[in-house]
């Protein structure tokens, strides 16, 4: 069946195009696909030719190709879009990946912080002579004229809402299978859309599921899954994304939007860092998961989480992230020495944990931190004042969410440390007469850490419970300077007060404050069924009020993105539907979060006192108890 591939110019006149893209043409002549279309037609009670025609229409919409002339020139256009950045790539990583590219289909799952991600990945690979990459993007970007050009440069446009389009889903699934069968490289955002907070969003399984189905469906098909992290010093589009988090509307994509977006890139924004996580063969991983008794759907979920963990591990710490972390922890302007005082212990910790630093930057170098402060001030994120005895910087009004976006690109490296601090605080607060479980005080701390893990599991990526405890033990060894099997409240209090850095208030307070606002509004509903949209709207309004009243620590907690995560947690705990005991459980939910906020605030006070002197603070262990 001919696909009748044609395009139209600006006047609507039909223009001839080259032959249909190879995979689309092969698919329409493939017996495997024909059999499935026939089965789908029988299920829907429709003529086979009608269903085949519908599938052909969908293929015309989604299928991409790599025309030599178009791809070359679109790659140049991509470099022009990226002109605000120097794109840094680890060439050793690229050399290893190039060896895999010779014999494998690469399934490149990238993090998504910018529209530029979908340009950066194929451009970086093309510049190093990788096989052509087919990149999946939302159909909302299939703009007149431009869409036809980029489709001939490897961009596959897909619809986001296909629940009522079974033939579309079958066609897309089959098209992905054909691409993998032909050993094409595929790239897509594992998050589905751009993050609005800076940290990774929960993975979306759509494209990954189709790739898994392709690998499971034929012995000769396999793919190497490759996590690809992309992070930027600054981004022009962050302000627009964070505005959505406070109730603003997302502007629809259009040709005018593309022109404005391209114009913004004239202003230099520093560097973009593209790094490769640890690849793994998909078939081998599937076979291992199936051997453990997991179904295909469970295996896909596990693989998606594994990709997210590897993306976090590959994401380097930027100087921008660490500087924003330092300034967000203070409600005042800081001079350079004060910023460095906060950054120094963080830098030492990052070095001890061997986390990668973007561009191999020295996080403790005065000139590096100074330049970052100036760049953030130039970008409007910070306000600088230099008319006194020395320059000082603080977060600009209404820029807390922007600064938080940059901080959150590195927040994953500090979550375990933050949870450990709260676990240690729980031990230090134990009453001497408390009846202890088997394992003593240390077991109390581990159980508190796991409670926090469950409280924040919709916000951050955590390993299984056993691995989580092992990770915390490694954190405790760093804090204590050695292995600890037994611990008591007084020793824990001394260790906690003298520890550097303290991070719980910097890392967890914004999220817990946001959770507290939603939990408070939910508790006010009594035992009534909750309308989720109404609850979010009320939480946003009250959150703004609490920020003005300083009932929450920072304006960055006033965020629909954070409220939606808190709502997901409440839904998971079955707190949204009317029930006989739901009012009491809602009150308990709010109390649980309020107590966590109290203890995070206490860590913040310890940090301030610890920063005031070079020696451990003179806080008696009893002062840590309520």
UniProtKB/TrEMBL annotation:
Q: Which GO terms describe its molecular function?
A: acyltransferase activity
Pfam families, per the entry:
Acyltransferase, GPAT_C
Keywords of the record: Acyltransferase, Membrane, Transferase
Q: For the Phospholipid/glycerol acyltransferase domain, which residue ranges apply?
A: 106-233
Q: Where in the cell is it found?
A: Endomembrane system
The superkingdom of the source organism is: Bacteria
Membrane topology, as annotated, equals:
Peripheral membrane protein
> Which family does the record claim for this protein?
Belongs to the GPAT/DAPAT family.
PANTHER family (UniProt xref): DIHYDROXYACETONE PHOSPHATE ACYLTRANSFERASE, GLYCEROL-3-PHOSPHATE ACYLTRANSFERASE
| Protein name, entry field | Lysophospholipid acyltransferase
Species whose genome carries this gene: Flexivirga alba
């Amino acid at each position: 069946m001919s696909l009748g591939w044609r395009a139209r110019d600006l006047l609507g006149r039909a223009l001839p195009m080259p032959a249909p893209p190879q995979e689309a043409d092969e698919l329409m002549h493939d017996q495997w696909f024909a059999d499935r279309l026939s089965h789908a037609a029988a299920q829907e009670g429709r003529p086979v030719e009608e269903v085949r025609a519908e599938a052909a229409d969908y293929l015309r919409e989604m299928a991409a190709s790599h025309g030599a002339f178009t791809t070359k020139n679109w790659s140049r256009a991509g470099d022009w879009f990226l002109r605000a950045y120097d794109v840094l790539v680890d060439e050793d990583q690229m050399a290893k990946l190039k060896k895999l590219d010779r014999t494998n289909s690469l399934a490149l799952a990238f993090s998504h912080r910018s529209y530029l991600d979908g340009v950066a990945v194929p451009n970086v690979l093309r510049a190093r002579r990788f096989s052509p990459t087919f990149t999946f993007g939302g159909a909302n970007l299939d703009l007149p004229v431009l869409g036809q050009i980029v489709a001939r440069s490897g961009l596959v446009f897909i619809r986001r809402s296909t629940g009522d389009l079974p033939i579309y889903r079958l066609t897309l699934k089959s098209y992905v299978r054909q691409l993998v069968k032909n050993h094409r490289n595929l790239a897509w955002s594992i998050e589905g859309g751009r993050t609005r907070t800076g940290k990774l969003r929960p993975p979306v399984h759509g494209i990954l599921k189709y790739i898994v189905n392709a690998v499971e469906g034929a012995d000769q098909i396999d793919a190497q899954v490759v996590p690809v992290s992309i992070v930027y010093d600054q981004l022009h589009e962050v302000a627009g994304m964070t505005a959505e988090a406070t109730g603003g509307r997302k502007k629809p994509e259009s040709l005018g939007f593309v022109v404005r977006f391209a114009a913004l890139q004239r202003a230099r924004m520093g560097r973009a860092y593209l790094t490769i996580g640890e690849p793994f063969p998909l078939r081998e991983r599937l076979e291992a998961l199936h051997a453990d008794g997991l179904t295909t759907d469970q295996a896909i979920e596990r693989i998606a989480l594994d990709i997210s963990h590897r993306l976090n591990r590959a994401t380097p710490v930027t100087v921008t992230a660490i500087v924003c972390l330092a300034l967000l922890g203070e409600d005042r302007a800081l001079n350079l020495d004060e910023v460095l005082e906060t950054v120094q212990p963080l830098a030492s910790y990052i070095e001890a944990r061997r986390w990668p630093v973007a561009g191999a930057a020295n996080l403790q170098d005065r000139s590096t931190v100074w330049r970052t402060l100036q760049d953030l001030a130039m970008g409007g994120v910070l306000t600088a004042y230099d008319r006194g005895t020395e320059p000082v910087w603080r977060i600009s009004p209404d820029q807390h969410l922007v600064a938080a976006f940059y901080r959150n690109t590195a927040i994953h490296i500090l979550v375990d440390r933050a949870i450990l601090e709260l676990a240690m605080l729980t031990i230090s607060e134990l009453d001497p007469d408390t009846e202890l479980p088997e394992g003593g005080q240390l077991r109390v701390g581990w159980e508190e850490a796991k409670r926090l893990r469950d409280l924040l599991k919709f916000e951050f990526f955590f390993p299984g419970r056993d691995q989580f405890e092992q990770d915390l033990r490694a954190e405790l060894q760093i804090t204590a300077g050695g292995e600890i099997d037994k611990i008591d409240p007084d020793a824990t209090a001394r260790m906690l007060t003298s520890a550097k850095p303290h991070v719980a208030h910097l890392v967890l307070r914004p999220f817990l404050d946001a959770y507290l606002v939603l939990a408070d509004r939910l508790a006010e509903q009594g035992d009534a069924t909750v309308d989720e949209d109404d609850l979010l709207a009320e939480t946003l309004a009250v959150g703004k009020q609490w920020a003005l009243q300083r009932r929450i620590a920072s304006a960055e907690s006033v965020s629909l993105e954070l409220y939606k995560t808190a709502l997901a947690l409440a839904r998971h705990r079955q707190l949204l539907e009317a029930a006989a005991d739901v009012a009491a459980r809602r009150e308990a939910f709010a109390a649980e979060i309020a107590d966590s906020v109290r203890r995070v605030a206490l860590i913040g006070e310890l940090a301030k006192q610890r920063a005031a002197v070079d020696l451990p603070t003179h806080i008696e262990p009893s002062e840590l108890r309520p």
